[in-house]
Write a structure and sequence with these properties.
It is a single chain. By secondary structure, this protein is α/β, with parallel strands linked by helices. Helix content is about 55%, strand content about 15%. The protein is globular. The structure holds NADP nicotinamide-adenine-dinucleotide phosphate (NAP). NADP nicotinamide-adenine-dinucleotide phosphate binds near residues 55 and 154.
């Protein structure tokens, strides 16, 4: 075997997720679904999360048609009770073993800052920021006792720079970085 082949083989084995369980919010379509596919192709058992049951069922069928392990659980991450029910179902499904959480569920509304309504602000903040935090909280309750867990909060360019006409979205995406940094210190330090 050529040295380059050996290197390639050993590099790929580092990405093996066989036996790992993963929850991907926003995993029913878009970027979340692409990330969930990556995890499933690496061997993980994935739970796709979104509000639309129909979209979830289509995504789960697509994963399974490729021989990948996927379940779909409908939940609304802007509603803390719905998040708690989601993780209760995940805990039942995998006997409390959750290894990976990707918080990809997100929404955006573009308009001049002078025109946002309170309802639009609340919808964006509740989905992107509150949803991310409370999914981390529920995942943390499963991960901390097992001393293992990986959480990815999906940010955006607006996590670093200002972009016009998306002020509430930008606030959430800077916020999810703050959540990630805080939990890294709080939960990642022995
Ligand atoms: N697309 C981009 O260019 C881009 C760039 C940077 C960052 N991002 C971030 O990447 C993530 C995915 O973006 P995307 O463009 O792929 O989005 P998308 O195609 O609109 O998909 C959004 C996903 O989130 C789910 N979702 C939305 N609200 C939800 C809620 N309240 N509860 C549960 N699930 C919910 C949707 O399912 P349901 O509608 O069925 O609930 C769907 O699965 C977001 O966090 C976004 O901010 C996107």
């Amino acid at each position: 075997m050529e040295r380059t082949d050996r290197v390639k083989q050993s590099d790929l084995s580092r990405f093996d997720l066989s036996g790992r369980t993963a929850v991907v919010t926003g995993g029913s379509r878009g970027l979340g679904k692409a990330m969930a596919l990556g995890l499933a192709r690496a061997g993980a058992d994935v739970v796709l999360v979104g509000r639309s049951r129909e979209t979830l069922e289509a995504a789960v069928a697509e994963f399974r048609s490729q021989g990948l392990s996927a379940e779909g659980i409908p939940a609304d991450v802007s509603d803390v009770n719905s998040i708690r029910e989601l993780f209760r179902q995940v805990a039942n499904l995998y006997e409390g073993k959750l290894d990976i959480l990707i918080n990809a569920a997100g929404i955006n509304i573009r308009k001049p800052a002078t025109e946002y309504t309170e309802a639009e602000w609340d919808a964006i903040l509740n989905t992107n920021l509150k949803g991310t935090f409370f999914c981390c909280q529920e995942a943390g309750k499963l991960m901390i006792p097992r001393k293992y867990g990986r959480i990815i909060n999906v940010g955006s360019l607006t996590s670093s720079i200002g972009i016009a006409t998306i002020a509430p979205y930008g606030a959430t995406k800077m916020g999810v970085v703050a959540i990630a940094k805080t939990l890294a210190v709080e939960w990642g330090t022995p």
